Amino acid sequence: MKRLKVLTVFGTRPEAIKMAPLVNRLEQHNNIESIVCVTAQHREMLDMVLDLFNIAPDYDLNIMKHGQSISDITVAVLKGLEEILLKEQPHIVLVHGDTTTTFVASLAAFYQKIKVGHVEAGLRSGNIYSPYPEEMNRKLTSSLANIHFAPTKENYSNLLKEGVDGKNICITGNTVIDALLQVVKDNYVFHNKMLNDINYEDKKVIVMTCHRRENWGEPMVNIFKAVAEVVENNRDVEVIFPVHLNPHIRKLAQEILGDSCRIHLIEPMEYEEFANLLNKAYLILTDSGGIQEEAPSLGKPILVLRTETERPEAVKAGTLKVIGVSKKQIVEEVENLLTDEIIYRQMATASNPYGDGKASDRIIQELLNRIST
């Protein structure tokens, strides 16, 4: 029997984090020929993850350009992958989640009549413009995929409702837990000295991320003003905010948050550093998707700075709460967790719905069982 030829395609930092443990396992398997293509929809942040997990791509489209639009990404990925697919003729293309790289790579594979496996399939917010363009990317990818690797039963149900044959859906858990368990360490020492100097035992450290496109403008102003008010009201609180590279976000963060000595605006962090920072946090404020899955494994309450989430199983489990982008609401919800030990403990000890760190092995076994060579 020929080895199964698997081409994995990803282009952003979040994709890379979640695909890295799967790529590592694919490359170790004797019955699989693993080929990796990165589009570099993100560049610097992607490269940090590749270095951490020792992944050397076979192909790098290197598409990132200053000020690129979604259309620019779409055209560059579609054209760049055509030649690679024609040359390699893999048995299956693996994509992840909901980026423009994910959707376009699936489309490129479809054009060559090559099977598509969708890792982290079935997430839905119910609003095609939030998150944008991710919600539509994941729906379109589902229409093109042959095998759907759904992290949870809820994701499985979402796909069934859209007409996907249940025989083509596998519940695997989320690969981000595989990645997280590889990098979080006791007594971790940060490269950034300031992070080592913070008293995580006596201070209530809030780690925040905020960058989603739908939060640009007034929502982000509300979020930053709410955080400033929380810090002003609570002397035992410190905030660590790795600020996205987008210049508009950085300017706004500096204007509203830059004058407080207990709000630390720092550069984006490598994944290992950031995962270990989450592990030391008291609570997490985020509009990110992936962190909603990671933090429950670390016993950290998450307040989601969005009006909806495509991860409702975490809401049901009690590990996270969606609090919107109203300044008043954000202040109230954060201060509830800072002052009410019962509410805090309920969220911190809720069961993680995203798996046991063995999703990659389940995906590989399904590929070997389902794809003929």
TrEMBL record:
Keywords: Isomerase
Top-level EC class: isomerase
UniProt domain UDP-N-acetylglucosamine 2-epimerase: residue ranges: 25-367
The EC number(s) this enzyme carries: 5.1.3.14
Keyword Isomerase belongs to the record: yes
NCBIfam families tied to this protein: wecB (TIGR00236)
Entry similarity comment: Belongs to the UDP-N-acetylglucosamine 2-epimerase family.
Protein name per the record: UDP-N-acetylglucosamine 2-epimerase (non-hydrolyzing)
Species this protein is from: Alkaliphilus pronyensis
